[in-house]
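Complex record, two chains
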Amino acid sequence: NAGVMQNPRHLVRRRGQEARLRCSPMKGHSHVYWYRQLPEEGLKFMVYLQKENIIDESGMPKERFSAEFPKEGPSILRIQQVVRGDSAAYFCASSPQGQGNTEAFFGQGTRLTVV
Amino acid sequence: DAKTTQPTSMDCAEGRAANLPCNHSTISGNEYVYWYRQIHSQGPQYIIHGLKNNETNEMASLIITEDRKSSTLILPHATLRDTAVYYCIVRANQAGTALIFGKGTTLSVSS
């Protein structure tokens, strides 16, 4: 059973371009979580999705950021018109359920660099 | 905001037990205690979780006090590869709850 797969592992974008980060959850997992980690800082929760639904987006910046988890295919975190401050590691996690008694497993992250 | 308090850093000698404390004095009856670690900017790794009973797996043991206001993660024989940031998290047992990370404890294992 493959783990959580994120791609690309490294992404370089020029200011103003769009960044698309993909996350394929573990088999059988229908809950996906996205986190951002700025250099030398902790993990910040961004958004929690279930198939075709956004459950909690309280950590998402109000502009330029969006996330989806379609019925088929990976979850996508999309950042429009990237700025240097978006440079960070973005981690995705998945779990079979969204409740407290089920552990979530993380991918290895996508390192976004905005130049 | 994280509902836990952990020491910023700890040191441990290789081969000795590492005991990482965590305070969660406001924990609710339906909240689980989770431990994750992050090794040098890799993806966080699940270690263990529990509600009120002590738990043990191949990686570690989790000791939760009777009043559930604190817990200790025990790595019985620390190795250099256990050097990481360790996060203690409380998470409600209800639908729609995410893991919220605090600052964690940086554990340094040295030979």
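Note: The beta strands of chain B are 9-13, 18-23, 31-38, 45-50, 55-56, 61-64, 70-75, 84-92, 105-110.
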